[in-house]
């Protein structure tokens, strides 16, 4: 696809009067891996990607501490629920980009699955890095650690392929350039 279209109608929020186009954030009510297991998606991602995990007493869902080897920065981060913004969850193929590139035509249950897909589209990462990335695609953003570009490119392409989402010409050019340096 030459460029990213902007079909309009994207609204992530789920408060009264908001469109909630990808469903409630981190819902457990979906058919992606981890769905309907009694734990919200954010905690499933943390439990799957952190090490040295501590759970809230009496819970096997609520992650209160752990260590993250950040897939974007290469840094080792300490997660504490009291400062939860230190580690955030990234949608590798951003929700806004997915909306623009075709998700606006999907049924709601498929959009909810995409937004909560542990296997193909979610990564725990440093909060600041996630904020810097925002809704950017590869032509606009690559991980700060060059050693992690191949991992990110592969993850992005896997999510795109899994959900039949196109990539722009600019993204394709960047991903091809990255691929030349991958093993």
UniProtKB/TrEMBL annotation:
Q: Where is the GmrSD restriction endonucleases C-terminal domain?
A: 40-177
Query: Does Cell membrane count among this protein's keywords?
Result: no
Q: Which domain of life is it from?
A: Bacteria
A Pfam family that the UniProt record links to this protein: GmrSD_C
Which keywords belong to this entry?
Answer: Endonuclease, Hydrolase, Nuclease
> Example GO molecular function term?
endonuclease activity
Name listed for the protein in its UniProt record: HNH endonuclease
Q: Which organism is it from?
A: Nocardia otitidiscaviarum
Q: What is the lineage of its organism?
A: Bacteria, Bacillati, Actinomycetota, Actinomycetes, Mycobacteriales
